[in-house]
Predict the 3D structure of the following.
Amino acid sequence: MTRIDLTGLTVRPAQVWGGVRLVPLVRDEPVAGLRLRREVYAGGPWGDTVEVGDGTSYTSYIPHGFVADWSGSGAEAAAYGTRLGTEPPVAVPVRRLARRRRGESRLRFLPLHLALEGYLALHFGGPSVVWDEWSREAVRRGLSPRAEAAYAGWQVPGLAEALRVFEIHPGQCGMLLYVADALAAAFVVPHPDDYRLLHPTLVEDLFGELVHQYALYGSPVADFTTSLDAGAVSSLADLRRAAHAQERAWAEAHDGLMARDLLETPYAFERVHRMGGFRLYRFLPPFLRTGQEQHIGELICDHKGRTLYLKTFRLSENQIRRGYLLRRLADCDWHLDRTAEALGTSYAEVVARIRRAGFGSLLDAHVVARRLREKQEG
C-alpha cells in the first residue's frame, strides 16, 4: 500500500463559511465490523495519565480519545472532552503517542498522536556514523528531545463557526476540510453515526501553523454554484439528470485538482496494529521536494486496502524542510560533504540548513568552524 484509497466514499458539493470549505464524503453503505467507540477520560481538565507498559507513563493534551471496536457490537461512538491545564494553551506541544489495547477486540488511541509520533521519530536516533562534525550529545541522544507545535481547531479563525453551521449529509462518513482553498485535513470514519457525533470534535483537533496562517490572513472563498441549460430541462427527470451531472463534474474537478496531492502522493506506510481483519497504519510523505502540499496521517483499512478511518495533518513548509533534510542526511550516512554533493550545494550551506532547521546543537561548533576555514583557505 502506497496511496490513500477512498473507494466507497463519494464527494458531495462543498459548503462554505468565510474562508472555510468543507467537502462531505458519503458512503452508500456503512462499513460492517468496525466502529469508533466512546472514550471518557477521568482526569478532568488535567487530562489523563496512561501507563505505556514499559515502566513509563504518558500525560498529554487530550482533545478526545478513540476506541476502535471490531467486536461487532458497535453500540457507541467517540466523544471528546478533556484538556491539559486549566487554561487552553496558545499552541499544543506534541511529543509521544499513547495507545493501549482494551480487550481482545478494542484499541484505544489518541487521534493524530500516532501520525505525529511517526514524524517526530523520523531519524530520531541521529547520526548513524560518528563523523567529527557531530557532537557527542548528538551521538549519545540523537534528536532527543524533539517536539513540534500545533494549534487546536478552536484557534483556527472561522473554523468553530463553520463547523457549527455546516449541515451533515445523510450517509456522511467523512469530510475534507479546506482553509483558503488549501487542504487542511481529511477525516473519515466507518459509520455515519460515528461521524455525526464526531463532527463537533474537529474543533479540538490539531492543525499546523500553515493552516492557522491561511485562516488568519486568507480571504473568503467562492461557494459552489452551478448553472443548468434551461432548454435541456423539460421535466423533473431532466432536472434530476442535470443536477447529478453537475455533482459528478464537481467530484471529478475536486479529486483531480483540489485533493490531487493528498490522493496521488506515494506515502511510506508503517503498520502499527492488527485488529482482526483491519490494519492500523501511520504514514509519512516522501519529502522529495518542498513547495508541494504534504501530509502525515493515520488510517485503518480493510484487507482490500480501502480506507475506513483516516486523519491527516498538513505539514508547514518548515516541517517539510526538516523532514527533507533529515532524509538526505540519513541517505548520505550523515556525512556533510556527501550530503552537500547530493543536494548540489556547498558544505557551508548544508551547515546553515542544519542550523536553520533547529538542529544546530547536534553539530560540534569547533570542528565545523575549523572545516569551514579549511575549505575557505583551500
Observations:
- Confidence is low (pLDDT under 50) at residues 74-98.
- The CA atoms of residues 241 and 257 lie 24 Å apart.
- The two ends are 49 Å apart (CA to CA).
- The longest helix spans residues 236-258.
